[in-house]
Write a structure and sequence with these properties.
Blueprint lengths: L1 H42 L19 H7 L13 H12 L11 H13 L3 H15 L3 H10 L6 H14 L4 H13 L3 H17 L1 H4 L4 H13 L3 H11 L8 H11 L5 H11 L6 H12 L3 H14 L5 H12 L5 H14 L1 H14 L3 H15 L5 H21 L1
Helix pairs in contact: 4-5, 7-9, 8-9, 9-12, 11-12, 12-14, 13-14, 14-16, 15-16, 15-17, 16-18, 17-18, 18-19, 19-20, 20-21
């Protein structure tokens, strides 16, 4: 044992020292390698990736809860729409939502029509008006409801449309007639009164028996409107309606008064009165018409008087009418009036008219008027006696003369 210790101790110690140095070197190298690797990683740039976007409803809900509530899965898990589907979705997004239709009741439709007119949309107003007509249908009570809703209406187009519709659908309905008669005689607005009077005139024209049901007190109210209303349209419509009542007390005298004396009240009422005179049986009508033809400066009224005279002329006082009309042919300056006088003359006595027209042509200073009178007299000279055929043939000759005149 001592031998071994003395012999191997130095060598063994030397090997241990070499082994320790090698181990120390290996540890140092390994430590240096790990230290460098750590240092390099700490200096490398860090790139942060954004968190994926998720739909609001898909936030942190358990899968079974989302499925139960019908919540869509996160957007990144949904498949993209096909091209055709995408185009469809884009087109749908560009289509404006349709306007809400008005409720199907009268007041709402009336309000909608008025609103459309107020904003100037006549197309919408017309469409809504058709809907309103459908809502009314044949129900007179609904028609009266609309009349009540329009009681304060001032738009003449809307008023005209309402009364025209009433005339088309309810002209013979007793309830509507009664309401319109009330409007005609007592409404505060002249526009409503005028439209109502026109409705009543059409009702009497289509149903003459209806005139017999209108009381005399109502006729007196209309006479008062004719004489006293400040509105010309009301006066004119009153005269046109009263022309259907010339046999009632006071109406005939009122027509004569208006025809002759209402020169400062506008022409429409006078025209209606002059036209009404042709329907009466009073011989004094001819004298009034001739007075208008002789004295009135308004050519329109003289023409209306000549038309009425042409209707009345064949019925009575033929000799007197013939003489008066022949005299008027020499003084009248308007051809339209003169043409009506010529046919008044022919209707009184076609045989005597040939000579009268030849005399009138010889006195005529206007070449065109002279040629026209000669054209009519030539048709008479050829033997035609039907006044309507005389008119047609003479018009053909007058047109040929006018063409020849233009070609010169």
């Amino acid at each position: 044992s001592s031998h071994l210790s003395s012999t191997h101790t130095p060598a063994t110690l030397a090997r241990c020292m070499r082994l320790g140095v090698a181990l120390l070197f290996l540890v140092s190298v390994t430590a240096a390698f790990f230290a460098g690797w750590s240092l390099g990683r700490s200096q490398a740039p860090v790139i942060e990736r954004p968190a994926p976007q998720r739909a609001p409803e898909a936030t942190a809900q358990p899968t079974d809860v989302r499925a139960t509530r019908g919540v869509a899965p996160p957007l990144e898990t949904q498949s993209a729409p096909a091209p055709d589907e995408l185009a469809y979705l884009q087109a749908q997004a560009q289509v404006p939502a349709p306007e809400a239709a008005p409720p199907p009741d009268g007041p709402a439709l009336v309000d909608a029509v008025r609103a459309a007119w107020a904003r100037g949309d006549k197309g919408a107003a017309a469409t809504l008006g058709e809907e309103l007509k459908k809502w009314i249908g044949d129900d007179a009570s609904r028609a009266l409801q609309v009349v009540a809703l329009m009681d304060d209406e001032t738009n003449p187009d809307l008023l005209d449309g309402m009364f025209r519709f009433l005339g088309e659908k309810f002209l013979k309905d007793p309830q509507v007639r009664a309401k319109v008669l009330e409007i005609a005689t007592s409404h505060r607005d002249p526009a409503h009164q005028a439209k109502a009077l026109g409705f009543l005139r059409r009702a009497v024209e289509e149903d003459p028996a209806y005139a017999d049901t209108i009381p005399q007190a109502t006729v007196q109210q209309v006479l008062a409107l004719l004489r006293n209303s400040p509105n010309e349209d009301v006066r004119a419509q009153s005269a046109r309606l009263l022309g259907k009542f010339v046999a009632r007390p006071g109406v005939w005298d009122a027509m004569k008064e208006v025809a002759l004396n209402f020169r400062d009240e506008g022409t429409a009422a006078r025209e209606a009165a002059i036209e009404a005179l042709r329907t009466g049986q009073d011989p004094s009508a001819l004298g009034i018409l001739i007075d208008v033809l002789k004295q009135d400066p308004d050519e329109k009224l003289r023409k209306k008087a000549a038309e009425s005279l042409a209707v009345l002329a064949p019925t009575r006082q033929k000799a007197e009418v013939f003489r008066e009309v022949e005299g008027l042919l020499g003084t009248e300056t308007n051809w339209e009036v003169k043409g009506m006088l010529i046919f008044s003359l022919i209707r009184v006595s076609p045989d005597d008219s040939v000579g009268a027209l030849q005399r009138a042509a010889s006195r005529e200073s206007d070449p065109k008027a002279k040629a026209r009178i000669e054209a009519v007299s030539s048709v008479l000279a050829d033997g035609e006696r039907d006044w309507l055929k005389i008119f047609m043939k003479s018009q053909e000759r007058i047109k040929r003369l006018e063409v020849q005149e233009k070609q010169k």
